[in-house]
Amino acid sequence: MSNTLPTARLSYFSHWMDPVALRVLGAEPNIALDHLQFGMDRATLDAAFAQAHGYHALPRVEIQEPWFCDAALLARAPNLLAACSSGAGFDVIDVEACTKAGVIVCHQSGTNKEAVAEHVLGLILALSKKIGVADKMLRRQAGLDRFAVTGRDIRGKTLGLVGIGQIGTRVAELCRGLFGMTVLACDPYLDAAEIAARGGTKATMEEVFARADFVSVHVPRNRETFGMIGAAQYAAMKPTAYFIQTSRGGIHDEGALAEALAAGQLAGAGLDVFLKEPPPPDHPLLAFDNVIVTPHNAGITQEALHDMAEGAALQWAQIFRGEVPPRLENPEAWPLYSKRFEAAFGFAPKALG
């Protein structure tokens, strides 16, 4: 049936994160790829989006204005049916505007969960063993007293998760299985039984920050979560506890975290994300020896890049075959999307199960 289908145009900037995506999509005779570059003239880019049925959006670190998938772009892309993010996060896509326009939004959640979970575990180990502090001190101090960087074991400690989706669940599995840690999880969308099935004990946000030896954040960035962690949460932490953030910048208040660290309200932090990425060299949090930072690369490993690209390509193939994509964020858009899809391609997509 695929050879009789009309052509679906998929626009994307730069390159796919792994060549596997192009191999997958190259085997789909009814998908035409529009490989765009930010340096192209505006008229060429606008013409491509005017024809596009799909838009594969770059992450926030790489995307440029005015190519965020927002209401303004949707107005320039009247044929757009679907927008997908490159990774698990989809904060470069305005889900509300897409839903209103009958555009479905998808992401690649779960395709890089192993990479991020292992990164979190690495930060937990590096912070608790004071590896980062020891490295910095040894490089600048002659005759360093090794007892000055005495760390702590993590076995039997308490992990607090803010969000226990696919990545949080894998973090819980690693910490419980390897180190016998107690796992508390705050997730308002899951009941106690579901959280228990994922390896945690349901707790409030207040309980997570007050009781945990390590607080790790695993939520998407949206209106609900932006700025949700600030001075009150840091003040509730034990002075021996560590804060870890590998989800998205803007969810935690960076200025308040710097103040809390300076006041000794917590023992340190491991940060893979910032509101502005990369952060400027004079960012206050970069001045602390007990803060380990990485450039939003927790989910970037060779394996994860392959799995994200393959997962995205397979999902695009499903979308244009009229199937329900596996990582659909806004199912409420499906009725209007279905009408628009049928008008574009001459057949209706499958109904939501």
Automatic annotation (TrEMBL):
Keywords: NAD, Oxidoreductase. The keyword Lipoprotein does not apply. GO terms for molecular function: NAD binding; oxidoreductase activity, acting on the CH-OH group of donors, NAD or NADP as acceptor. InterPro entries: D-2-hydroxyacid_DH (IPR050857), D-isomer_2_OHA_DH_cat_dom (IPR006139), D-isomer_DH_CS (IPR029753), D-isomer_DH_NAD-bd (IPR006140), NAD(P)-bd_dom_sf (IPR036291). It comes from the Bacteria. Residues 68-327 form the D-isomer specific 2-hydroxyacid dehydrogenase catalytic domain. Residues 121-298 form the D-isomer specific 2-hydroxyacid dehydrogenase NAD-binding domain. It holds the Pfam family 2-Hacid_dh. Belongs to the D-isomer specific 2-hydroxyacid dehydrogenase family. This is D-3-phosphoglycerate dehydrogenase. The lineage of its organism: Bacteria, Pseudomonadati, Pseudomonadota, Alphaproteobacteria, Acetobacterales.
